[in-house]
Amino acid sequence: MYSLIKAGIATKSELDEAYTLDEALKLYALYSMDRDIERFQAEEMQAEMGR
Predict the structure, then answer these.
(1) What's the domain count of the chain?
(2) Residue 9: other Cβ atoms inside 10 A
(3) Domain range holding 45?
(4) What pLDDT digit, counting tens, does each position of 5-50 carry?
(5) Which superkingdom heads the taxonomic lineage of this protein's source (predicted)?
(6) What residues have CB less than 8 Å from 27, skipping those under 6 apart?
(7) Which of 1, 23, 32, 34 could make an S-S bridge to 19, C-beta 3.0–4.6 Å?
(8) Which residues contact 19 (CB under 8 A, 6 or more apart)?
């Protein structure tokens, strides 16, 4: 959950008070997938520039 706080997606109080554990885990999964997509796109762009 620290990753969500660090990224500014949610505050500690929001995670404690507004989200259930299940919702917070889903939010983290979405955030993680978004980061993975951005990383793969950056890798693809670098690979194409290197050709």
Answers:
(1) 1
(2) 16
(3) 2-49
(4) 999 999 999 999 999 999 999 999 999 999 999 999 999 999 999 8
(5) Bacteria
(6) 4, 9, 10, 19
(7) 23
(8) 10, 27
